[in-house]
Structure formats: structure tokens, C-alpha cells
Amino acid sequence: MQPQQNVTLHQLLDHLENGQRIHEKFDISWYNSNQSRNKESRFLNFGTSGCAIGEMPALDSRFRFNMDYSLVFNEEPVNSKLISQYFGISNSETWHLFYPHSQNIGLFGGKYLEDNATIEEVIDNLKEFLAKQKNII
Questions:
Q1: Which among 42, 128, 133 is positioned nearest to 87, based on CA atoms?
Q2: Do 46 and 57 reside in the same domain of the chain?
Q3: Number of structural domains found in the chain
């Protein structure tokens, strides 16, 4: 059995854009919020709102939600360092793409993301980041 391949940023972008997200509401502040549990979800301990990284259980089975609604990867708590390693990007790039109040627009482009950032704003920042990466290579 071959080890599972990591999802790419392009695949995450496609998932976020296609409208088949597992969270009903986007909330950049939480991987997975337990505001109200979605009892119909195929994902255990799944809340109704979450951020882009909170969508990872839909793309890679090594991600899952714990009983306390926290997100883990191979039983390791998810944090920015783990996400950086997973996608093969720097920690500053991870913070720029996925966390509010952490954007380096001069270096990576996009726009500043507030606590109320929308999924569309995160998608736009991800697209601009990937376009810049393509031009560097």
C-alpha cells in the first residue's frame, strides 16, 4: 500500500471554489467550530462553521476532528507549523494564506484578512499567491 499523497494548495483552492465545502459557514477564526453540531455530517465531531484548513478532512483522510472539535493530522494537533510542512510552504506564507491579521501584502499580494474575512477573500488571496509562485518558478 502506497502512502497517501498530500493535497496541494491547488487542490484545496479547487475544493474551496467548487461549493462542496463540509462546513455550512466560513469562519476564518476556527478550524472547526462547535457552535452547533451537524448531526448529518459524515465527519465525526464536525461543527457547522470552519476555515479553509478546517476543510482538510474532506480532502485527506489523515485529518480528522477530535471529540472536542479540534483538528488533528495523524493524531497530531494541527497548527501553523504542521500546515506549513504539509503544504511545503514557509510559516509566514501559511499565516498569510490562512490566518486573520497576518497578511504580508507587499511580499505575497492579496488583501488584509480581518476576523470577518469571507471565503471569497481567502480564495482570492490563495489565487494571487499561487499566481505569484508560478511566475517565480
A1: 133
A2: yes
A3: 2
The grid coordinates listed for 107 are 511580499
Same domain, 68 and 111: no
> pLDDT (tens digit, 9 = 90+) per residue, 10-44?
999 999 999 678 877 777 777 766 554 444 544 44
Give the whole-angstrom CA distance, residue 46 versus residue 42: 8
Q: Which of these three, 56, 77, 98, is where a domain ends?
A: 77
C-alpha cell at 4: 497517501
Say yes or no: 69 and 105 in one domain.
no
**What is the value of pTM for the model shown?**
0.83
Q: Compute the distance between CA of residue 60 and CA of residue 86 in angstroms, rounded to an integer.
A: 11
Locus of grid cell 451537524: 38
3 state SS for 21-72: CCCCEECCCCCCEEEEECCCCCCCCCEEEECCHHHHHHCCCCEEECCCCCEE
